[in-house]
Amino acid sequence: MPDSAAERFQIPSMRDRVSPEEWQARIDLAACYRLTDLYGMSDMAANHISVRVPGEDGAFLINAYGMLYEEITASSLVKIDVHGNVLAKPEFPGGLSYGVNRAGFVIHGAIHEAKHEIACVIHTHTWPGMAVSSLECGLLPMNQTSMRFAKIGYHDYEGVVLDLEMQERLVRDLGDNNALILRNHGLLTIGKSVGEAFNAMHRLELSCRAQLAAQATGQKLVEVPQAVVDATWNNYQPGTRRPYGVMEWPALLRKLDRIDPSYRD
């Protein structure tokens, strides 16, 4: 008999039911969920990270609504299209039938449909992200890390993202940026790879934490000249440097493998 709840909640492997390319995408996405939790950016079963399914136009993978980030595996992910239709889902134990949160496919489906070059979308509700999203000043380019997001997009709060009519405005406000602050809501980043999107979210989260820490002192902030901010922002752009995530993503996977390799199941 199983001796733990984790063993009882064993999801049958999807490996033989998908292409090798999709299986690798599942491993990377499951790793991203685990890392997002490990770095303190999860919100129990809420929020979403999605990745486009290679070779399947309009299909992407997302979390089953009801699972914690720390327990997500490659086989637990649900495949849906940009309209929220379930294309494939795992067999959950115990008679459970987890679906997909509507807000997830409304936000993620809009971006995957509009930006075919984007592989991964990450959305979080961290306390630093929610705090900065609620400040009129938004994210300040007050240090080198935050200057990477000096031209970040903003999307005004319209309520819980359930209305498909919000999709066009969401994509418009994201524009050509790789990050978006959802006012009074949270943070969103995108990338051409899972590693790139995670790198952006980690740095955006760090920027929010640093800003709140500095503002909490009540001291006057040092203002960086706009020309320096612009030059620093430019140094962070894809055309100036190598893509983000390429170097550290394998190291992050090794980190997870040392802690708990079950994300690969």
UniProtKB/TrEMBL annotation:
<dbReference type="InterPro" id="IPR036409">
    <property type="entry name" value="Aldolase_II/adducin_N_sf"/>
</dbReference>
<protein>
    <submittedName>
        <fullName>Ribulose-5-phosphate 4-epimerase/Fuculose-1-phosphate aldolase</fullName>
    </submittedName>
</protein>
<dbReference type="InterPro" id="IPR051017">
    <property type="entry name" value="Aldolase-II_Adducin_sf"/>
</dbReference>
<dbReference type="GO" id="GO:0051015">
    <property type="term" value="F:actin filament binding"/>
</dbReference>
<dbReference type="Pfam" id="PF00596">
    <property type="entry name" value="Aldolase_II"/>
</dbReference>
<dbReference type="GO" id="GO:0005856">
    <property type="term" value="C:cytoskeleton"/>
</dbReference>
<comment type="similarity">
    <text>Belongs to the aldolase class II family.</text>
</comment>
<dbReference type="InterPro" id="IPR001303">
    <property type="entry name" value="Aldolase_II/adducin_N"/>
</dbReference>
<feature type="domain" description="Class II aldolase/adducin N-terminal">
    <location>
        <begin position="27"/>
        <end position="212"/>
    </location>
</feature>
